[in-house]
Amino acid sequence: MSQACAGWRGDIGAYVVGALGPAEAAGVKRHLRGCAACRTDYQDLLPVRDWLGRMNPVDGMPAYPAPGRPPSVPVRSPRHGSRRRWLTAAGAAIAAVAIAVTTAISAHPARPGYRAFDPTTGVHGQASLHATPAGTEIDLTVAGLPAGQPCILVTVSRAGAAVAGTWTADRAGRAEITGASAIPVGQLTALHIEAPSHRLLLTIPL
Questions:
Q1: pTM of this prediction?
Q2: What digits encode the pLDDT tens for the residues 140-197?
Q3: 45: helix, coil or strand?
Q4: What span, in angstroms and rounded, lies between the C-alpha atoms of 95 and 90?
Q5: Cα gap 36→117, rounded to integer Å
Q6: CA dihedral 162, 144, 169, 189 (to 10 degrees)
Q7: Whether 31 contacts 42, CB under 8 Å
Q8: H-assigned helices in the chain
């Protein structure tokens, strides 16, 4: 996130947990449509929101609604103090999750990770690469695909390209696969997600 967008961080966090009014939420949505960096931050917060949504309300955290929808628990008339305390509690929980994730990463170093979003196709994905004796193993997560879309994962290098895997998106347009390429990690320059017609759905630069 750039310095110019730093002021949006709090609003994006509040939008993720459904704590903004309709006008504020509409402003965040407009900003997300035009800012790739903030869209990335928003997407990073979604798994945290989903995790928090599974917590029992008696533990002090409500089940969060989707952005733009009213909370599923009764809400009294909006007072600045109560809203501030509610957002503070949400922020504390998110911070606790971030600490736990950081600890896990320190104990188990992550593989090199890459991600990208194509505003034309609406497809976004992230991949981690792992060097193997045979070349490269790719862990890939993709979302935003048409339901049931057949896809091909193509690894690209300066010397050429090679198919690393094929799959069909689920009904939600998502897929998680592990692919393999004979091209070594250090020689890869990009990952292409293609339809069988060779239409390019997403490029993940490496």
A1: 0.48
A2: 999 999 999 999 999 999 989 999 999 999 999 999 999 999 999 999 999 999 999 8
A3: helix
A4: 9
A5: 8
A6: 10
A7: no
A8: 9-16, 22-34, 36-53, 80-107
